[in-house]
Design goal:
The complex is a heterodimer of chains A (about 180) and B (about 425). Chain A contains three helices and eight strands; from the N terminus they run αααββββββββ. Chain A is α+β, with helices and mostly antiparallel strands and about 180 residues long. Chain B is about 10% helix and about 45% strand.
């Protein structure tokens, strides 16, 4: 079963990151930190087995079996399998956009979520929106493959407002990066 | 009414006007006293209460002084009030009463001075609320008055909340370690005697700090190892144990059990595997055992659709140092439900590898702590916001305190 392809995930995430950001010093340092930290080699890897992923109900988590793709203001929306916090889609923003006046964090933690419509796994970047008080609406806590602080890029409790003007946490988005 | 009017004006005016207002207050009391006396006389004439008794007026309150606290007691519990509610509240589990509040900003971490003289808050504040220049510090509060004593400036720290091992005190109170993620991983070393930041140690891929006597600290790592850092060396040396757990498939909860005196740690994984570690320059880690097997039920695994008892919650393990028993919040469900609140407390005799008691909970708990008293008490922070205090031996409910729970719980350790 090929659940994760960390190299492709890393490449996509960094390409997206590089394409959408300037080369200001702070961001360059953040990118360097992401690369330098032993991040991608420790993501769950299952390289050896068959290329075709098992998407049967028996292979899915509780969240994936019950996920829907219609309403992104509900905790069971498929992209939210590892989100934690208020949904920006309930706070004046969208699933992938910050509410007015809030600022997207350039870095994020990630999740691998299965789309119920096509059965594929996608890499989702949970980019916090920062610079406003906690929205405190539609609070969700998806925990699929969410781990502890020593794997910070897979931990959803960290305040990910790095490189933003303010570190105040407002809400979280779920940005689709690509297939996992 | 005169009294109330006086109070209102007291609140509105500056300190220079206070005396006058107090005189007014007294005057209003005596007016009220005269009225009361007249009314009492009228009642007495009608054959009611003796007039002499009712004639004694209430005495005015003395000068106002804030309450001070006695030396910290093992029966106390320190309660983080939650994600958006700053402060750490102190409760006495003997009385169920709140004793005071340690000032602390959002996402700060609390640590207790082993000598009992101070409370330390590792926190980050900005010059304009959440804007302006960031300032990271350890703020020192007097343990009796809860008043600010000093601030120790340091470089950045992680903003996360809800973790016990991001700010730890070592060397009998002489050293503090503060974890930082920016998002590279490092540790601030602080001399608590001189009140001075000493150095920053890069710690790639590791977090959750355990003081190691005479060495420095250990930390859990993303490659499944335990790193140990010799702090005193000019260039800090980091050594890693052989990997012993999977940080992504069956992670160890980063709120684990730690015994500073015995230099031991008790680690619990998402599936319920229990490891013990003997800390030191070269730590040794035991073979794991299943907490479910220790309770006589089926061990858990990582397969979808398999329903088992799993450990979980935000602070799901409390370790009683005197007995070596761990109290673990457990729930039933499938794998990847590690944040689900506990519906039972399992008391695990770690050395005997046996669950000796299970306590069902009406209000599922997010956090658990145990007082380090011989007759220990359990403190449980419920989903509903209620703080429940139980006798650890009998499970008997001592107190149920509404609107008192929030975040991580801490108790004094010997």
């Amino acid at each position: 079963m090929k659940t994760f392809n960390p190299d492709a995930m890393g490449e996509k995430l960094l390409r997206r990151f590089a394409g959408g950001t300037s080369r200001r010093g702070i961001l360059a340092r953040l990118g360097l930190a992401l690369v330098a930290a032993p991040v991608f080699p420790v993501l769950p890897v299952s390289r050896a087995s068959a290329a075709k992923p098992d998407r049967s109900p028996e292979a899915k988590t509780t969240f994936a079996r019950n996920a829907q793709s219609k309403d992104d203001t509900k905790c069971d929306y498929w992209r939210y399998c590892a989100i934690d916090g208020s949904l920006c889609s309930c706070c004046g923003g969208a699933v992938n956009r910050c509410p007015p006046g809030a600022e997207h964090s350039p870095v994020s933690w990630v999740g691998t979520c299965i789309n119920p419509d096509d059965g594929r796994a996608y890499l989702i970047a949970y980019r916090d929106c920062c610079g406003k008080a906690y929205c405190n609406k539609c609070d969700c806590d998806g925990t699929d493959r969410e781990t502890q602080l020593y794997v910070p890029q897979l931990n959803n409790d960290v305040i990910w407002c790095f490189g933003t003007t303010s570190m105040e946490y407002h809400c979280s988005t779920a940005v689709l990066v690509g297939t996992a | 009414m005169l009294q109330i009017e006086g109070f209102r004006r007291f609140r509105q005016k500056g300190p220079g006007q206070m005396k006058m207002m107090k005189v007014q207050g007294k005057s209003s009391l005596s007016v009220m006293g005269r009225n009361t006396a007249a009314a009492a006389c009228a009642i007495a004439l009608l054959g009611g209460i003796p007039a002499a008794h009712a004639a004694d007026p209430l005495q005015p309150d003395p000068e106002l002084e804030a309450v001070t606290l006695p030396a910290p007691k093992p029966s106390w519990v320190f309660v983080e009030r939650g994600f958006v509610m700053p402060g750490n509240a102190i409760y006495d589990t003997d009385t169920g009463k709140m004793l005071g509040l340690i000032e602390s900003s959002n996402l700060s971490d609390l640590a207790l001075d082993p000598a009992g003289k101070a409370f330390y808050v590792s926190e980050s504040i900005w010059t304009k609320g959440w804007r302006g220049t960031r300032q990271d510090m350890i703020t020192v509060y007097d343990s009796a008055t809860l008043k600010l004593k000093s601030e120790i400036t340091m470089p950045g720290r992680i903003l996360i909340g809800g973790r016990k091992f991001n700010f730890v005190i070592a060397d009998a109170g002489k050293t503090a370690y503060v974890y930082n993620l920016d998002p590279a991983s490092s540790v601030n070393v602080i001399d608590m005697v001189k009140g001075k930041f000493l150095k920053k140690i890069e710690l790639p891929g590791c977090a959750s700090l355990m003081p190691v006597t005479g060495v420095g600290f250990s930390a859990l790592c993303s490659d499944g190892s335990l790193a140990t850092v010799k702090v005193a060396a000019t260039k800090p040396e980091i050594t890693r144990s052989a990997p012993f757990f999977s940080a992504t498939n069956d992670p160890i909860f980063d709120n684990f059990g730690y015994d500073g005196a015995k230099q031991e740690a008790v680690f619990l994984t998402y599936t319920g595997q229990v490891y013990t570690a003997k800390l030191g320059a070269t730590p040794t880690i035991s073979e794991p055992f299943s907490i479910q097997a220790a309770a006589g039920v089926s061990p858990a695994d990582t397969k979808p659709l398999d329903v088992h008892w799993y450990p979980g919650a935000r602070q799901g393990l409390a370790y009683h140092l005197g007995t070596g028993h761990a109290f673990v919040l457990m729930h039933t469900g499938e794998y990847w439900t590690h944040k689900a609140p506990g519906t039972e407390v399992w008391e695990l005799d770690v050395a005997a590898k046996k669950v000796v008691k299970r306590i069902p909970l009406e209000d599922p708990a997010e956090e658990i702590a145990v007082t380090q008293e011989p007759n220990a008490k359990l403190v449980l922070a419920g989903e509903s916001g209620t703080l429940l205090i139980l006798d650890a031996k009998t499970g008997e409910e001592k107190f149920k305190l509404e609107k008192s729970a929030g975040g991580v719980l801490r108790t004094l350790e010997p």
